[in-house]
Specification:
Helix content is about 45%, strand content about 20%. It is α+β, with helices and mostly antiparallel strands. Strands 6-9-10-11-7-8 form a 6-stranded mixed β-sheet, with helices on both faces. A 5-stranded antiparallel β-sheet has the order 2-1-5-4-3.
Length: about 800
């Protein structure tokens, strides 16, 4: 794409590529105000990419818009463009307008457009070039924000790489505001540029010669250049030539970036972007980079590079446009600097308020001190922050610190400053702050200087912490990496923070005194509560012990009273059997020797049915014997349950205790009018004899089995078991697990909610109705198992899944204090 060619066809191709591939919003009008060419960016911005632009006039487009029923904004836009072209034609000079661009949502986006006339050799306007940029959006249009130029470019080039930043891009400051550069003015009214007479668009008098193309390029406000595949410059506009230090664009042809006043880093970056664009055939838009101009001024640019193609679509070079954003960059960086300063001040105020709030909300002195040094170190970017506390002899120690790697932590070292002058104490009491910018040059005692050097300190600031008019300690900042000048704002914040720390210490000491008194009162209350609980528990134990003792005595008495007559009956049954046998033998002998008894005897034999009587008499005697044996078993179970004669530990068979308890509760397992019988499943393992307190374990079995029956009765009574198909069941399972005996008592009742499981072993806790339970059974059972037998009592349950109690008892339990 060389403007030096004399071929009209080449110039036409060059001008077409310039406008078609330019990322700017451009349009070229002929002398009759017809569109000769429109850039894709402008078509995208107008949402009119499919519009047949060449040969159309704005008047014609306005009429088409009105006929199509578009909004009045479209009609008004085309009229405004036409009015601008007429003004340029009448005044023969450039015209700048602000247009409201409509879109398909009927929202408006404002753009600033410059219309520049191009003259022929006779001084007549040959063509008009328009270049548009987004304008500032007024408050009334902020809700319908326009597309940015980059958005329009991206829509035209969807595969483009947007916003790449040059490595090491320098920040701008007010010192970088450039002085106006003296460059050759662009004469937009140059009436000497020859223009051949060949037409470009059919019926259009625009003449796309190389000279004409150069005039257009020189009137574009951006910097324009183009290169071949080897990144050799083929041309540029006058603005780019002035920036690079050339008098005329023709001087640029054939040079490379290494021939220009760029730095080595800039050259490498430019060539890297060139290769990326041409090798991947991908535009790069809005590349952010800095550039040292020929006049020595550093400028900031946004460059767009687009690949150029021949008629076969092959990449033959690239087109570059540059927007000077120096002023924007300076304003942006200055704004960032101001924002950073404001944020830092706001952060300091936030930190001060944060620490103040902590003091009001927390009375943990250690936590407040630790957070203070940590956040202050990060805020001021110091290497070490610490709080130092004085002793009575002005020696002291570090109570907390925050240190940045790789500097040494001092918290656990002996850091007493034996060189501390007592005169400094008076200075600190007056609220004065001591800052040292450089310990190497400061007026210090050599002893103190060596002390600071040993701690790797090169600069420090020490602020007094005053508590109740006494010098409590210092808030100290250490700079270890190098000297540091402490600003007045930093010192003021240090003082404010130290004052807050002093308040925190005073409040903490007052709180500690109050806490000590509260702890003493709390200890007394705990002791009183423990005493009351012990008394209550003892009373409970006594009541339950008396209850069980009375029950045992009653059971034992009943068993004793029953046992005597039962033994009498059971002992005489063999004699009765013997006598009955003798009588039967006697009757048999009578029958043999007197086969024909008298009529009266015969009638009586028939009346009493002697054969049946003799046969039934044996059955009755057998029933007496079985009944007596059953009564003896019941008496034995009652005595086994009571175990009044076994208050001390002895080795027993736990199955006997479980069976005796089940015998006593047998009536509760039987069917009732409102429910079927409760099934009992016994799964006994092979257990050895276990040393225990038998009567107390029987009490535990009674409580757990009774609770299981109660749970099943309550579930049935409240109709909660209607959806369960299995019958109500209680399962007793025993196993030996290592050195422990495990007894599991499970029911398939309603289960125990989580809220109740955490409290079930508490004294007097019960979920049964009033009069149905005391809340002592599980509590006493837990105490018997854990305290008396050194075992464990645990429960697993789920709502609707039943409950299981697991009793673990050591085979040989250790001696414990007698229960009750």
């Amino acid at each position: 794409m060389q403007p030096a060619t004399d071929s009209a066809g080449s110039a036409e191709t060059a001008l077409t590529q310039l406008i078609n591939q330019s990322p700017e919003w451009m349009a070229l009008f002929d002398r009759d105000h017809r569109y000769a060419q429109v850039s894709p960016g402008l078509a995208i911005a107008l949402n009119a990419s499919q519009l047949a632009w060449p040969g159309q006039t704005n008047t014609h487009l306005a009429e088409q818009s009105q006929a199509a029923g578009h909004s009045k904004a479209w009609y008004k836009y085309w009229q405004q463009v036409e009015d601008a072209l007429l003004t340029v034609e009448q005044q023969a000079q450039a015209e700048r307008r602000v247009h409201a661009l409509p879109n398909h949502d009927n929202d408006l986006k404002l753009c600033e457009t410059t219309y520049t006339p191009l003259f022929d050799t006779d001084g007549n306007i040959e063509a008009i070039v328009s270049i548009s940029h987004l304008s500032v959006v007024p408050q009334t249009h902020q809700k319908s924000a326009p597309k940015s130029l980059t958005e329009a470019q991206l829509a035209a080039y969807p595969d483009a790489i947007v916003g790449t930043t040059m490595p090491g891009l320098t920040s701008a400051s007010i010192a970088d505001v450039p002085t106006p550069a003296k460059s050759s003015p662009i004469n937009t009214s140059d009436k000497t540029a020859p223009v051949p007479s060949a037409n470009w668009v059919e019926g259009s008098p625009v003449k796309p010669t190389a000279e004409f193309l150069q005039v257009i390029l020189n009137n574009i406000p951006q910097y324009i250049f183009w290169k071949d595949l080897n990144s050799v410059y083929l041309g540029c506009n006058q603005r780019w030539a002035d920036m690079a230090g050339f008098n005329h664009p023709s001087e640029v042809v054939g040079i490379t970036d290494t021939d220009l006043p760029w730095s080595a880093e800039e050259v490498d970056w430019y060539l890297q972007c060139d290769r990326r664009v041409m090798e991947t055939d991908t535009p790069m838009l809005r590349i952010k980079q800095s550039q040292l101009q020929a006049d020595g001024q550093l400028r900031w640019r946004e460059t767009s590079k687009l690949p150029l193609h021949d008629e076969h679509g092959n990449v033959v070079g690239l087109l570059g446009t540059i927007e000077d954003v120096t002023e924007c960059k300076i304003a942006e960086d200055l704004l960032k600097q101001s924002e950073n300063t404001y944020r830092k001040l706001a952060k300091q105020e936030e930190l001060l308020n944060h620490i103040s709030n902590q003091i009001r909300q927390s009375l943990s002195l250690e936590e407040i001190q630790h957070r203070t040094v940590q956040e202050v170190r990060q805020l001021f970017n110091v290497d070490r922050m610490l709080i130092y506390r004085f002793n009575e002899d002005w020696l002291g120690h570090i109570v907390t610190e925050s240190v940045e790697a790789p500097w040494r932590a001092l918290l656990h070292e002996d850091t007493q400053d034996s060189c501390f002058p007592e005169g400094h104490a008076e200075m600190y009491l007056q609220g004065r702050v001591r800052t040292i910018a450089n310990i190497a040059t400061a007026d210090l005692d050599e002893c103190h200087r060596d002390f600071l050097k040993d701690m790797q300190v090169q600069a420090n600031a020490s602020v007094p912490i005053i508590v109740q008019d006494q010098l409590w300690g210092l808030l100290v900042a250490h700079q270890c990496a190098g000297p540091r000048d402490w600003s007045e704002a930093e010192v003021d914040l240090f003082k404010a923070l130290a004052a807050q720390v002093g308040i925190a210490i005073q409040q903490a000491e007052l709180y500690a005194q109050a806490q000590e008194s509260a702890d003493l009162a709390r200890q007394k209350a705990v002791e009183l509560e423990t005493t009351l609980q012990t008394l209550q528990q003892t009373q409970t134990q006594l009541v339950q012990t008396e209850k069980m003792s009375g029950l045992g005595q009653m059971v034992a008495g009943i068993a004793h009273e029953i046992n005597n007559p039962v033994n009498f009956i059971y002992g005489n049954i063999p004699h009765i059997k013997e006598h009955v046998g003798d009588l039967k033998q006697l009757l048999s002998l009578y029958g043999e020797h007197y086969p024909s008894p008298t009529d009266e005897v015969s009638d009586f034999i028939a009346e009493i049915d002697l054969d049946y009587l003799l046969e039934d008499l044996d059955k009755i005697l057998h029933s007496f014997q079985l009944g007596s044996q059953r009564i003896q078993q019941i008496v034995t179970s009652l005595r086994t349950f009571s175990r009044l004669d076994e208050a001390e530990k002895k080795a027993v068979d736990l199955h006997e205790g479980i069976d005796s308890t089940l015998l006593i509760l047998h009536h509760r397992f039987k069917a009732k009018p409102d429910r079927s019988a409760i099934q009992l499943v016994k799964d006994y393992g092979d257990l050895p004899l276990v040393e225990c307190y038998p009567s107390q374990l029987n009490q535990v079995f009674m409580n757990l089995l009774g609770n299981g029956v109660d749970a099943l009765d309550q579930e049935i009574a409240t109709s909660q078991r209607a959806d369960k198909s299995e019958p109500p069941t209680i399962t007793v399972r025993t196993r030996q697990v290592g050195d422990e005996i495990l007894i599991q008592i499970r029911d398939n009742g309603p289960g125990i909610p989580e809220a109740h499981r955490t409290k079930m072993f508490n004294p007097f806790f019960t979920t049964k109705p009033i009069g149905k339970g005391t809340g002592l059974g599980l509590s006493i059972s837990h105490q018997i198992i854990t305290e008396r037998h050194g075992g464990r009592l645990m429960a697993t349950s789920g709502v609707g899944q039943g409950s299981e109690f697991q009793i673990y008892i050591p085979r040989q339990t250790s001696s414990a204090k007698a229960y009750g």
